[in-house]
């Protein structure tokens, strides 16, 4: 009991000292930087667009043509269709696992479901399939930012996605799985400029590619900046303020989707879908950590090849290819961002 009373009295004394000894006017300038403390590069530049922890969005694509759809595996006949619209729900979460000045590691989940509305779709097995069942992608990803010192850093990213036109959860299979990854080595020359070079395995153009990548985030002044991860996306940024910004640029999206098609060569086909989206995007803070994002632009068809083989590339592996029309689109999302 005596020890307990002593501890309580000591705690009250420390609390009183803390309340009476204000540090509001304390002069820290007499102290220099701690010697021997290693500094590390940070993952952002000044005024950069906020990093999203959670995002929920809706995208609408207007009507366009879908020409040259094959009528059957043994028939040399093709037919043109009209897509009235595509409606897409998108969700993404990026959860920090470790966040220190020495390492940042995040795990993420992503989901996207595109519902096609095709006129007279029932007269063809392919169009009736994607009209009845959404083109869905769901997966997991991880990203590691490792600063090596004050100027150099590494970024490692990988993802695994199940993509397909699934009639039920039971139809999800290993052939709908795609694996992607990126490795970047970079230099942060100042708080306003960071550059990185690397290599990526990606399905963004619809089929698997192994390509070099360029990361370049630069803030020119309080108003202007750019955010590039080429060839995946690039934006020129204008900051009305730190919580209100406009971006003009593009993004390349896509993946390979498995689809059950009983009368095809192997009972299934693989839709290699790639889209280039020139766009204008507005982002604004609406509360403490909640931002609104709205974008509009053109959905340009990069690739819509339907293959008989997983990761098919040769002409003799192609079921058919369609040169889709290029509609306007808009996208709106609500985002929870990091501080």
Which structural class do the helices and strands define? Answer: mainly beta
Distance N to C terminus = 46 Å
Q: What is the number of independent domains?
A: 1
In N-to-C order, the SSE pattern is HEEEEHEEEEEEEEEEEEE
Pick out the low-confidence regions.
1-34
**Strand residue percentage:** over 45%
Tell me the number of helical segments per DSSP (H or I, 4 or more residues long).
2
Shape: globular
Largest sheet: 17 strands, mixed
What is the percent of helical residues? Answer: under 10%
The number of strands is 17
CATH architecture: Beta Barrel
Q: Please tell me how large the radius of gyration is.
A: 26 Å
Mean pLDDT: 90
Task: Indicate the CATH topology.
Answer: Porin
| Highest-level CATH class | Mainly Beta
Describe this structure in words.
The structure is a single chain. The protein has a single domain (52-337), classed as Porin, CATH 2.40.160. It contains 2 helices and 17 strands. A hairpin with a 7-residue loop joins strand 2 (64-70) and strand 3. It is 8% helix and 58% strand. It is globular and about 70 Å long. Residues 1-34 have low confidence and may be disordered. It has helices spanning 2-20, 125-132; strands at residues 52-61, 64-70, 78-99, 104-118, 135-147, 152-165, 177-190, 193-202, 209-219, 224-230, 233-241, 244-260, 268-285, 290-298, 300-307, 318-321, 328-337. The protein has a 17-stranded mixed sheet that branches. With 339 residues, the protein is mainly β.
């Amino acid at each position: 009991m005596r020890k307990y009373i002593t501890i309580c009295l000591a705690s009250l004394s420390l609390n009183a000292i803390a309340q009476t000894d204000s540090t509001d006017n304390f002069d820290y300038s007499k102290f220099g930087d701690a010697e021997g403390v290693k500094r590390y590069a940070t993952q952002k530049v000044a005024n950069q667009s906020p990093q999203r922890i959670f995002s929920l969005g809706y995208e609408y694509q207007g009507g366009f043509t879908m020409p040259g759809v094959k009528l059957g595996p043994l028939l040399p006949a093709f037919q043109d269709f009209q897509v009235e619209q595509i409606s897409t729900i998108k969700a993404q979460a990026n959860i920090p696992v470790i966040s220190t000045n020495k390492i940042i590691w995040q795990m993420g989940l992503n989901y996207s479901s595109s519902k096609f509305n095709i006129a007279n779709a029932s007269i063809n097995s392919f169009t009736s399939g994607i009209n009845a069942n959404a083109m869905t992608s769901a997966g997991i990803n991880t990203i590691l930012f490792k600063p090596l010192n004050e100027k150099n850093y590494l970024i490692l990213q990988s993802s695994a996605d199940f993509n397909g036109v699934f009639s039920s959860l039971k139809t999800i299979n290993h052939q709908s799985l795609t694996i992607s990854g990126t490795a970047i080595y970079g230099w942060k020359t100042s708080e306003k400029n960071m550059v990185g070079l690397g290599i990526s395995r990606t399905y963004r153009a619809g089929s698997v590619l192994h390509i070099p990548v360029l990361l370049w985030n630069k803030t020119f002044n309080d108003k202007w900046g750019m955010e590039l991860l080429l060839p995946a996306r690039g934006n020129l940024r204008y900051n009305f303020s730190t919580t209100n910004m406009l971006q003009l640029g593009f993004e390349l999206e896509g993946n390979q989707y498995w689809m059950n098609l009983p009368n095809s060569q192997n009972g299934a086909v693989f839709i290699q879908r790639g889209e280039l989206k020139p766009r204008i995007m507005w982002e604004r803070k609406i509360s403490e950590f909640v931002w609104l994002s709205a974008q509009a632009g053109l959905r340009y068809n990069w690739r819509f090849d339907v293959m008989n083989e997983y990761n098919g590339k040769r002409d003799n592996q192609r079921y058919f290819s369609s040169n889709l029309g290029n509609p306007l689109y808009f996208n709106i999302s609500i985002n929870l961002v990091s501080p």
